[in-house]
What does this fold into?
Amino acid sequence: MRGSPPILRVVPGSYELKQGSSFSQVRSILGAVPNVHVVVVNPGLTLHEVALNVAQDTNNAFGVKFLADATAAAATNAYHPNGSLEGLIGPGQYLISSKESPAQLLKAMERSFDREATRAGFTPSTSISGLNAYQLLTAASIVEKEGYYAFNMPKVARVIFNRLAKGSALQMDATVLYYFQQDGGTVTHTMLQTPTPYNTYLNAGLTPTPICTVSSTALDAVLHAPPGPWLYFTVVDKKGTEAFSTTFAQQLANERLAASRGVG
It folds into this structure.
């Protein structure tokens, strides 16, 4: 029909519309590119990985400012982290409008963590087995990476508690990889011999900061770790099941079992 407006072709994505906008204003916004960015923070992601995702979904300058503001925000966080917001942002989906700053985004992520912690009964004054809240959060981040699946996490938490109680090195590959900004993969001999604060083969005790974003499942595993004498664990099938043992001989037997199943 003569005089009809051209067909509106909307690019898939998220759009911000002001309440009371006119038809022409709505049409103009929907006819352009999406003006709201969506960032998804999954459990297990490091703050650095989140910043890369933020930069990819917005722009590099926003991502750089995000990391800088994260350092500043750490100074006022209730959990008194070691100069880092690592582990102190909540997993979830975040919408970034055109007017939102990196500092505002970080504040939303901190509030998300606080809500998750509150639901789990976790507060800045929580203490278990001589560990303060920040140390427990650090343990939960290691559980997140080493347990991977929910069904492994409670016993992984107990292994960490047991090793800490004995004064033994945790010997967790995920902590070594964190320093090298690697998510999974092979831990090389060179990595194991590199003296870093996150090398839990060379250092006894926990890492100085958490190593990733923590799920409510991992946090709950640390807060309610089951009793047990386990000191070792390894993946023994392709479903990710981990077998737990109390002696190194049992651990070696489980490693042989894993190898026979093509795992490892």
Notes: The first helix runs from residue 23 to 30.
